[in-house]
Amino acid sequence: MPFTARTAEETAAARVRFHADGYAPIPGLLTSDCLHELRAETQRLVAIARRRDFTMSCMDDSPRHMTTLGGHVIARESSRMREFYENPVLLGLVAAVVDELPVTVPDLLERHVFNVLHRQGDTHGAHTDDCPYAMVIFLEAPHSLADGGLLQYVPRVGALADLDTDRARSAHHRAGDAYLLRSDVTAHRVTSLTRPGVRRMVLNFAYTTRSAAPRSTQSARELYM
Fold first, then answer.
1. How many structural domains is the chain composed of?
2. Alpha-carbon span 213 to 209, nearest angstrom
């Protein structure tokens, strides 16, 4: 089993937090064996990932300084990642937290993506996503809050500009942790890495629902094509 079992109490607490904030931490989601396996697989994929340094006009000119790999490439290069994304235990956990049946995303480009911050100043600037739900899984993470790479988000619905107000909250995660985000309406970003030698490496698994209206912006294509 690649995932650490959740107790009923842990799942219930995540559900309450998610419905209150649009965010729920899932600490220690990955077993040590699974974390090791996924790290080895992503290290292989890093060789074909692309560096991105630009501002995104459709997201208030927020910055992108990061290395990425789009889901269309992951689908071609890694059957293991495809299996992991569609794992019924993971889908069941998402369903239990959001109280809705998740559906895999038809567009391969943003279905499962790989994001790496690895240089001082790297950041994933303010944005919302096209899909309703994002399961973000940490393969590497800064050890200290002072190192940056924190998730910042505005609980529930908020404008991107609200990330610069006292409405914004910050969250620190460790390797093997995950979080679930209502990512289409929850404004969020990743703060800049503050020193050399720090890495933040995540898999972002996007899910939709049968009732969700399709949404498409230029953001995914600018970042992952």
1. 1
2. 9
